[in-house]
Design a protein that fits this description.
- The structure is a homodimer of 413-residue chains.
- In chain A, the strands form 2 sheets. In chain A, strands 3-2-1-4-5-10-11 form a 7-stranded mixed sheet, sandwiched between helices.
- In chain A, 36% of the residues lie in helices and 15% in strands.
- Chain A folds into 2 domains: 11-157 and 165-169 and 325-371, Rossmann fold; 171-319 and 377-401, Rossmann fold (3-Layer(aba) Sandwich).
- The first copy, chain A, has 413 residues and is of the alpha/beta class.
- Chain A is elongated, with a radius of gyration of 23 Å.
- In chain A, 59% of the residues are buried.
- The longest helix of chain A is centred in the middle third of the chain and has 21 residues, at 171-191.
- Chain A contains 14 helices and 11 strands.
- In chain A, α2 (42-56) packs antiparallel against α4 (85-92).
Chain lengths: 413, 413
C-alpha cells in the first residue's frame, strides 16, 4: 500500500553485523512471521507477541518478516517495535495476515537459508504463527539452529485440526460465520422449500463444516445433514438421506466439506470430476475447488432427485477472514497465544497449544514434533453412528465454543 | 414447526359468511402476504403493516396468508392480530419470510381464485410484499376486484431493481453482507496474492454486485473489477482486465453478477455452459446457477491465465437473509413501508415506493402499473465508461446507502 505506516527496514542496515547498524548485540531480536491461510485473528497473535516482547525488554528489536519464511530468507522485514500501540491494535483487529503469508513448506535446504536470514539479524527467537506445516518448519529450524534460536510455533487455523489443541485461534470466528450462514439459509428455505448444499472449506477435518449445526433452533432446523472428511461419502446414501429429509422436513439443508472422500479415500472431487479437469498444486494435491465439487453435487441432484428445487453455494474464503464475524473470545485467545509464545521463547523451542481444563482455555507449551505434520480429526463420537448429523459430544463441544449469537423469532412455516 | 406459537386459522371458521364465525362485518379484514425471494427485513414490513392496522382499528382482523397468493387461494391463514407484540417484533427481527413465500406469478385465472379467497374472508385490503412480479399480481387483482379491495404492493427485493424506488427494503442489508465479504476477501488476498472471483445474485440488475465496492479502503483495494448485467461481457476483455490488474496490484478481486451477458444478450452461463447441461425453470428462464457460472469462469482462468492462483466462490443465498448483517436503517425503512401500505390502503390500490429527497428517504404511493413487470437497471453513469468499476455517481450512491461499518488497520503488504 502506498501509505503503509512503517517502511521496510533497509536490509543493508538490518543485515549488518552486531555492533554496527541497528543491532547492538545488547538487546534481543525477535522475529515474527505468519504462515498458511489467513484468519480473522492471526494479527491478534502477532500483536500479542509484540506487546509481550516490549514488556519483557523495552529495547528489544521486534521484526516482522513479510510473507512468512520467505521474508526471513530474503531479509524482508518491517520494524514492528516501532509501530505505535494504537496502530498495532488496529491491525490486531483486522482480519488476514498483515505481514503477508506463504504456502511454502521449506525443506532442509530452504530452512538453511531461513536460518541464515535469522542469524543475519541476530535473532534470539523466531515466532512463526500458522498450522501444522508451520510447526514442521519450526521443528526443522530448531534442530538446524542447534538450540541457538528459540523457534516457537503459535497456533492458527480455521480447520481446527492441530493436535494437542482443544481448539485453534481462528476457528471460533470462522465457525460463527458458518453457523450464522446456515441458520440464515435454513430460515430462507422454510419460506421457499427445496434442497440447499453449502460447501465449506476443510480438506481433512470436518470441524468447520460441523459448526454449521451450532445454531440450529430445534429438531426441525437445518443443516439436516453434514458430510465431513472423517466419514466415507456414498452417493446412494447421500441421495437417500436427502429424500428422507425432504419427506420429514419439507426441505433439506446440507453442509458439506470440500474434502469429503469415498470409502477408498479418494476425494469426492476426484471421484466425480473427470481426471483431465482436475487441477493439482505444487505438492500434487488435487485442488479442492468448491465449484468443482458444487458442479458434481448439482449433477447428482439433477440426475437422482430431478424436479426438486435445489441450490449449491460455495462458502469458500468467506468464513476464514470475515471482518463482520470476529469473535471476542477468539481474538483474546489469539492474542494470548502470541503473548505466551514470546514468554516461553526464553526457555527454548516448542509449540503453543490452546488447552481446555476446568472450564478454562489456556495456552501450554508442547514439543514441536507433537504437532508438526499431524492432523487432528473430528472425534468419531461427535457424529451419530447412523445419521449424518452431530451426536451429543459434538453438540456439547460446539455449544461451548460457539455460544448462540442470534435468537430468531418463530416463523409460521 | 411443532411449537409454532399461533395456529392456522380453521378455514371453516374463517371462510364462514359475514355474521357467522370470526368475521362480523363490523370490522375490517386486512390480508398480508409475502412473495418472491426472502430478505433480511421482509418480516419488518409485515410487522409494520400489522402494527398500523391495529392502531387504526384495534378490532381489525389481520390475516397472514401462508406462501403468498397460494395461501390466499387455498384459505391458509394465520391470525397475525392475535400475535403478542413481543412475538411480532421477534419475527420482525428475523430474516426470511415468516409467512412463507411463493414463486407463483398468477395469471388472470389464478387471480380469480385469489380474489375468491380474499372475498371469502371479507378482505377490505390486501397488502402483498414483494418485487415487480408481486406488483404485477396486485395490478391484476385490483382490476379484477373492481376497486372493492385495496390491493397494495409493499416493496421488497435485494436486487434493488424496482422502478420508482431510490432503493428497496432488503437491499441495504444484503449490500452490507456483500461489501463485508469483499472487504474481507481483499484483505485475505493481500496476504496470499492471486485472482478471486465472487459470484453474486442478480439476473438483470447489478446493484448488489456493485455493492461489493462500497467498503474499498483505497485505490489499491478490491474488488478491482465488477461485472454486471448492464454491461456486455467479453471474454478477451475480461482476461485482459485481470492481467492488467495483476500487474498493477499483484492480486485481482472480481465481483460478478450471476446474470452477466454477452453483447448478444445471452447470459454468460448460456454462452459458456453446454446447452444440454442448462436447467430451466417453469418460466423457461435458464437457471443461473452460481456453480455453473463459477465452473465456466474457472475454465477461462485455467485456459487463459494458466499458472495463476485463483479461486471462485458463489455467495448465492448467503447475502439475502444474513442474520448477522441486518441493517438498522433497512429494518426501519422496511417497517415503515409496511405501515405506510396499510395507511394508504384506505384510499385504494397502489405500490409503495421508497423515494429519496432532501436527504430523507420516505415512502410514497405510486400506480401499480408504474412498477409491475418493470426492471430498474443500474444507471449507466454508475460505472466508468472504460473500466469495470464504479464511477463517482455510483460511489456516491453506495456511500450514502452503505455507510462503512469497519475500519481495518493497514496491512504491511
Amino acid at each position: 500500500m502506498p501509505d503503509v505506516s512503517i517502511d521496510l527496514i533497509d536490509p543493508r542496515t538490518v543485515g549488518a553485523p552486531a555492533g554496527q547498524g541497528m543491532s547492538t548485540g545488547m538487546t534481543q531480536t525477535i522475529v515474527i512471521a505468519q504462515g498458511g491461510g489467513p484468519t480473522a485473528v492471526i494479527n491478534q497473535t502477532m500483536a500479542g507477541a509484540v506487546v509481550e516482547a516490549k514488556r519483557r525488554d523495552p529495547q528489544a528489536r521486534i521484526l516482522g518478516a513479510l510473507h512468512g519464511v520467505r521474508g526471513v530468507r530474503d531479509s524482508r522485514f518491517v520494524d514492528l517495535g516501532a509501530l505505535p500501540e494504537d496502530q498495532l491494535m488496529n491491525i490486531a483487529r483486522t482480519p488476514s495476515a498483515a505481514l503477508g503469508s506463504t504456502r511454502d513448506k521449506p525443506d532442509a535446504a530452504y530452512c538453511e537459508k531461513v536460518l541464515a536470514g535469522l542469524k543475519k539479524v541476530d535473532a534470539s527467537a523466531f515466532v512463526y504463527i500458522g498450522g501444522n506445516d508451520t510447526a514442521g518448519t519450526q521443528a526443522i529450524l530448531s534442530d538446524a539452529s542447534g538450540g541457538s534460536i528459540a523457534c516457537v510455533h503459535a497456533p492458527k487455523t480455521i480447520d481446527n485440526d492441530l493436535v494437542e489443541n482443544d481448539h485453534t485461534p481462528g476457528f471460533i470466528s470462522a465457525g460463527q460465520f458458518v453457523a450464522a450462514a446456515f441458520l440464515s439459509v435454513d430460515l430462507d428455505f422454510r419460506a421457499l422449500p427445496g434442497i440447499y448444499v453449502g460447501i465449506v472449506m476443510g480438506r481433512h477435518a470436518g470441524f468447520l463444516t460441523a459448526a454449521a449445526s451450532a445454531w440450529r433452533l430445534d429438531d426441525d432446523s437445518g443443516p439436516h445433514l453434514i458430510y465431513v472428511p472423517e466419514r466415507a461419502f456414498d452417493r446412494v446414501r447421500f441421495v437417500d438421506d436427502i429424500r428422507r429429509t425432504m419427506d420429514k422436513h419439507g426441505r433439506c439443508i446440507v453442509a458439506m466439506s470440500e474434502g469429503v472422500s469415498d470409502a477408498s479415500g479418494k476425494s469426492l472431487v476426484e471421484s466425480l470430476v473427470p481426471t483431465a479437469m482436475l487441477e493439482r498444486d505444487a505438492h500434487g494435491n488435487v485442488r479442492l475447488s468448491g465449484t468443482d465439487l458444487g458442479q458434481a453435487i448439482e449433477r447428482i441432484l439433477a440426475e437422482d432427485l430431478a424436479g426438486k428445487r435445489s441450490r449449491v453455494d460455495t462458502l469458500g474464503y468467506m468464513p476464514r477472514g470475515a471482518i463482520s464475524m470476529i469473535s471476542e473470545t477468539d481474538a483474546k485467545e489469539a492474542f494470548e497465544a502470541g503473548r505466551f509464545a514470546v514468554e516461553v521463547a526464553e526457555s527454548g523451542s516448542g509449540s503453543v497449544a490452546l488447552q481446555y481444563a476446568g472450564g478454562v482455555t489456556k495456552p501450554a507449551l508442547v514439543p514441536l514434533d507433537n504437532v508438526a505434520g499431524k492432523t487432528r480429526h473430528m472425534p468419531d463420537d461427535f457424529l451419530d453412528r447412523d445419521e449424518n448429523r452431530l451426536a451429543a459430544p459434538g453438540i456439547a463441544y460446539f455449544d461451548r465454543l460457539l455460544p448462540r449469537m442470534f435468537e430468531p423469532g418463530k416463523p409460521f412455516v
